[in-house]
């Protein structure tokens, strides 16, 4: 029986995945807002100390998006805090627990290179100038691509397999963040063209049943993405890792 920790495991794709893995016999530890505020570096770090000391799979699926720019009590833009900082911190703090497992996996639901939108705003990571929800979301997606590359580079001797996975268009309810009439249009498109959360979770369940053997794998709904793409640039990954380490040093 595997122990699976799912950040963002109480609703959406993470919640559907938690249900499927639990029914398959895994011990699932879903993390939701009732367990910790993942927009808080301090609470995320404290949460890591309460989780099992041996973890087979860590799924990073938590995110929060808003049309308005919201700043956390610790001074971080909310999307960046939960989508980037918490994922970096959980992977790093739970690495010892993962390395006690036989075939540990980190599964990060992320942007995965090749989608021509968004960039890292190196001079303004907290988006104090010209914030939009799309800009924050796309920066988070690009940052998570670099998190995968950075983890593999920083821990070259670790047996942890890091998988970046983009499920593409999923009817996960994100359209509710928009104002009308955009909400109705995006919601209708998601219902018509998007996969259900259950379908997305089934694909992830199959992936975790037969995980890739490479230390870093990038998939866009099962299709491999070359690691030679600029979105996985090693110098950019190292730069981001250094910045995130500085931002979380007091946690």
Secondary-structure blueprint:
Layout: E1 3-7, H1 12-23, E2 27-31, H2 41-50, E3 57-60, H3 78-93, H4 95-99, E4 105-109, H5 133-154, E5 161-166, H6 182-193, H7 197-209, E6 216-220, E7 223-224, H8 234-247
Parallel strand pairs: 1-2, 1-3, 3-4, 4-5, 5-6
Antiparallel strand pairs: 6-7
Helix pairs in contact: 1-7, 2-3, 3-5, 5-8
Protein name: NAD(P)-dependent dehydrogenase (Short-subunit alcohol dehydrogenase family)
Keywords: Oxidoreductase
GO molecular function: oxidoreductase activity
Report helical residue fraction.
40-55%
What is the average per-residue confidence, as pLDDT, rounded to a whole number?
88
Shape: globular
Percent of residues in beta strands:
5-15%
InterPro entries: NAD(P)-bd_dom_sf, Sec_Metab_Biosynth_Oxidored
Keywords: Oxidoreductase
Protein name: NAD(P)-dependent dehydrogenase (Short-subunit alcohol dehydrogenase family)
GO molecular function, one term: oxidoreductase activity
Structural features, described:
- It is built from eight helices and seven strands.
- The two termini are 32 Å apart.
- 41% of the residues lie in helices and 13% in strands.
- The protein is globular.
- It has one domain (3-247): 3-Layer(aba) Sandwich (Rossmann fold).
- With 251 residues, the chain is an alpha/beta fold.
- It has a seven-stranded mixed sheet with strand order 2-1-3-4-5-6-7, sandwiched between helices.
- Keywords: Oxidoreductase.
- It comes from Micromonospora pisi.
- GO terms for molecular function: oxidoreductase activity.
